[in-house]
Amino acid sequence: MYYPTIFISNQEFRSSDNDSYDTKIVNGIHLKYRKELKKDLIIIDSEKVFLFAHVNVAYRGKIKKLSDNIEKLYSEFSVSIESFHWGFLFLYNFDDDSFKCYNDPFGIYPLFINRKDTFFNLSNDFDELVNGFNDVSFNKNAIHDYFLFNYTLKSRTIFNEINQFEGGSIFSGKNEEFKIRKSFSLGNYIFQKNNSGIDEMKERLAKHITSNIDENKKTKIPLTGGFDTKVILSLALENKLNFDSYTFGTPLSNDTKAARKISDQLGIKNTFYNSYEYFENKIEEDLLGFLRAAPNAPIIQTLLQYKMMNNEIQNTNLITGKMGGELIVGPILLSQLITTKAAAVITKSKKVNLKKELNSIISDIGIINEDNFNEHSEEYISLIDSYNDGNEENKKVIEFLLNETYAKFFGTVFCNVFASSNMINPFIDLHFLNMLFNSKYSITNKRVFSNAPLGHFKSRRFYPKIIQKSHPEILKSAMDRGYNLEDFLHWYKYPKPILNYVKRKVQGKKTTPELNYMSLLNNKLYKLTKDSALFELNIINQSRLDELILQLKNNNISSFHYQKLIQLFVLDLLAKKYAQKIKCK
Question: pLDDT, tens digit, for every residue of 538-553?
């Protein structure tokens, strides 16, 4: 499958397959895009302003209504910004020969830039940008990001020569002078006062879904036993969307069992994809395909399954509830995949303790050279401590989740599906978030990063309240735990989910005899060599690495350290992929 590559440059940028592209040149600016993308792009050439955009369906509609007054977009970044859920706009002003390029406020759309002297190359395709270089070098801070947070932070990428647009950024140019700046603050917007209630929040979620449906695509909903799925499902049924569902994973998982029960109860078609069977004979091939789409964000646990989904499900409106739980109930640290202990430290600890606590996490990771990190830790912290300014309840946590976790972790999902599917995520909506964080369900004054959900029951009531007003039948549908959403509507029913939680806490998580598809990589981990450029950086503790590989062979490695081994393996794979380009500095 093709990658929906776009280039914007003030020089001709030759790709590996020029015949697959169309090109427009606007006063020396080359705009190059895959031919298959044309139907999804907006290109408006007016007397005063030229517009080139790739954005979500709802925002396309807003822009087209402005077609006779398109210069308004050039002067006002915030025009219809509540409808701007993913994408970018490039505008050229003929009056003064200047341009602006800005991305969505969340930074979910991948946009990377390389600048050197008076030239720039901008693209949504990290891989093609790298291939345009004679040489690149690893960004050591970004590699530390990757092991601490599971993705690179701020505008960093794994290579020094390429930066990523942060959400709400503008890149502008005039007379061979260029600058990039962050011009929209999510925090300032979502925390401004709003007195809306549950009815308005439900309507906003529904509007986000219905306004972004591409009528030329089928609609599918990933079905699980979780809270967010239930809201998506209830809104789809209330609005009479024509859809079916799918579930991926293993046959005996709680999500799979719950999905089967829900589809039977509601008469919804559900297709199950067995991830282990799918990857059994082709995991390396699909891993390389996954990394082709998102080489700057190479966390693959759970996310690699989206490569399978993209191969199996084509041309769809994909309605997902990603990040709903983290923003409504609050982040937890059970798996340390979506959010990590380092994220808790950088957003919640006192500034004077940051160095000590991050050093402690580096020690826990084990395969990172502690002396090397400690030597540069003050500089490293100074680059990310904006998430630690002040003590504003959980506002910095929320900003981190939206600016970093959504853009970088779930951005990897977006990069792997947006060639063929239209991803719709109603929970990541400026207007909805503004209402949510001003409501009684907000996590701003609750304890977050806690493994214990008991303190979040009031926030969990948000889910049944929404469903009660949209499709009440969903309240009684199966979940991936021993209660249903109806139990959160009445205080006298709270003992049921509380006792269920205590039972699971005491008994521990039951394991099933099923095979995890990630185990298919174990033979690769056993044979992990140390001959790539990654091991020339003095970042990896090679003796500790040997110990962890031995633990893996003996089947006594922790899930946390197994995750770190997988991360190292993927970085090493990238180092070998770009071996002819990488120069160690």
Answer: 999 999 999 999 999 9
- DSSP state letter for 515: P
Looking at residue 453, its pLDDT comes to 56
DSSP string, 547-570: HHHHHHHTT---HHHHHHHHHHHH
Tell me which of 3.90.1640.10, 3.40.50.620, 3.90.1720.10, 3.30.390.30 is the CATH number of domain 194-331+394-502.
3.40.50.620
Q: How far apart are alpha carbons 269 and 100 in whole angstroms?
A: 45
pLDDT of residue 514: 55
Q: Where are the beta strands (DSSP E) in 117-158?
A: 119-123
Q: At what angle do helices 559-577 and 354-365 cross, to 10 degrees?
A: 80
Closest CA to 229 of 323, 320, 326, 331: 320
pLDDT tens digits, one per residue of 449-461: 765 555 567 788 8
**The pLDDT value given to residue 515:** 65
Q: Range(s) for CATH 3.60.20.10 in the chain?
A: 6-184
- The CATH class that applies to domain 6-184 reads alpha beta
pLDDT in tens, 325-348: 888 888 877 678 788 999 999 998
**Continuous segment of H or E residues that includes residue 181:** strand 177-182
* 3-class DSSP assignment, residue 465: helix
> What are the tens digits of pLDDT across the range 72-95?
888 777 778 999 999 999 999 999
Task: Write the secondary structure of 21-47 as one string of H (helix), E (strand) and C (coil).
Answer: EEEEEECCEEEEEEHHHHHHCEEEECC
- Please report the pLDDT score of residue 504 as a whole number: 64
CA distances (Å), origin 53, targets 23, 57, 422, 463: 14, 11, 16, 35
Paired residues of 220 in beta bridges:
244, 318
| Number of residues assigned to the chain | 585
pTM for the model: 0.94
Place of tokens 């994408």: 87
Mean pLDDT of the chain: 89
Residues 6+ apart with CB under 8 A from 483: 496, 497, 500
User: What was the pLDDT predicted at 345?
Assistant: 92
Backbone φ, ψ for residue 10 (5° rounding): -95, 20
Parallel, antiparallel or unpaired: strands 49-55 and 42-45: antiparallel
With beta carbons less than 8 A apart as the criterion, state whether 458 and 222 touch: no
Q: 361: how many CB neighbours lie within 10 A of its CB?
A: 17
Return the H-helix or E-strand segment holding 218: strand 218-222
End-to-end CA distance of the chain: 35
Can you say whether the dihedral through the CA atoms of 402, 407, 409, 411 is positive or negative? positive
The span from the CA of 415 to the CA of 157, in Å, is 15
Residues of each domain in the chain carrying CATH 3.40.50.620: 194-331+394-502
Q: How many percent of the chain have pLDDT more than 70?
A: 94
Residue 169 has pLDDT above 90, yes or no: yes
Give the β-pairing of 21-26 and 29-34. antiparallel
Average pLDDT over residues 387-416: 87
Alpha helices in 132-182 (DSSP H): 140-149
Q: CA 202 to CA 238: how far, in whole Å?
A: 11
CA 395 to chain centre: 19
